[in-house]
Each structure stands twice: as C-alpha cells, then as structure tokens.
Amino acid sequence: METQGYSQFCPVAMAAEILCNRWTMVVLRELVVGSTRFNELRKGVPRMSPALLSKRLKELEEAGVIEHVPSVEPGVFEYRLTEAWRDLRSVVEAVGIWGQRWVQSEPSLRNLDPSLLMWDMRRNLDPTPMPNRRCVIQFLYPELPVAKRNWWLIVSPGEKVDLCSVDPGSDVDLYVVTDLRTMTAIWMGLFSLSDEVRAGSVKVTGDAGLVRSMTRWLGLSPFAAEKKRAVG
What we know:
The chain is built from 12 helices and 7 strands.
C-alpha cells in the first residue's frame, strides 16, 4: 500500500491504511454495488487511469479485501469481495449517507460527467414498471459536444439494461431532453423530476405509459432519498 502506516493499534487507523488511498473507496463502491469485471469498474470510475485502477485492485487483493476468480465464461476473471470484507457494504453505505446529508451539493454539481451519470442510471434503472417488451429511451443533452450529447438506454425483456453512446439504430420509445446539470441533480435527489418537467427544464415526449411511470423506473442514486441537512 502507498501509505507507510500510522503505527497505531487503533482499528480505525488500521482500516484507514487499507481504505484511504486515493480512489480506493470509490473502487470499493463499485465492487459493493456489483461491478466485478475490469471494464465494468472502469465505467464506474471513468476519470481513473487504467494503470491506477489495476494498481488499486492489486493492493486490495494483497490486503485480502478482494479476490481475482474465474467467471463462468472461459478465460474471463472477476473481482469479488472476500467473505471477511463483505460487511464493507455497510461502511460504504454509511459514508454515502453521510455525504448526501452533510456535504454541500454545489461542489458536487461542478463535477459533471455524462458517461458516469448514464452508467449509474443504467445500473439503477428498475424495469418492473415498464412494458414487457424492448424499450428504447434516448437522453439528449443539447449543451454538450456532439460526441457526448446523445445516450440510449435499451431495456429488454428479462430486465436486461444496456447503455449506448452511439445510435443503436432502433426506434425510440421515449425522448428525454434536458441539460446535464439538471439531470445530475435529479439523479442525486436534489431536484424532483416531476417539478423539473412542470418547469420545462426536462422535456419528455413519446410513449405515454413510459412518461407516466418514469418517476418509478428512472434509476436514481441509492442515496437520493436522503435529504440534505443544514451545516452549522
């Protein structure tokens, strides 16, 4: 590990020697929510270099936090939390709840990233309220460069959800047009989708059933229900 250690017998200090390197907690967040393969982890930490991600994964493996195991697909390996470290889920969740309650939201909304937002929306989307057929939802962020402006969520029967940044060539069932800051704030639970639709900052057109159920299927942050609390 990068740190030389705190030379303390305190359990907090000992855990911090493993968990408090830069990016480590974010990588653990991805593992806790179910990412197991290197490319999945990269999508959850798009601003982390592949070399540094590999290094952090190796450190976590050496510390006994994760293990590198064969998947059901021949020649493919996955990273999984070891049994001794699976209760890290509660640690990660507690940190997320604290951040949602007490960390100011404005600094967070300066760190806009469409690929990360859409990846998280894909992961948390709930297909249950949607029709039992293939549904294509296109998100458009008009203020972004052309290469990052259009995104497609494709929901197939069997609750499979895919994300495309290149036109999949399919008929679109629902169009969602907004700016990235507004959509990020909705995902974080800072803005209400219904309020933003009424205000005109989110324009939704297409299948009436998908429009009506959007507040139920839209994948928000797992911490979105936590309300901000005043500081000081």
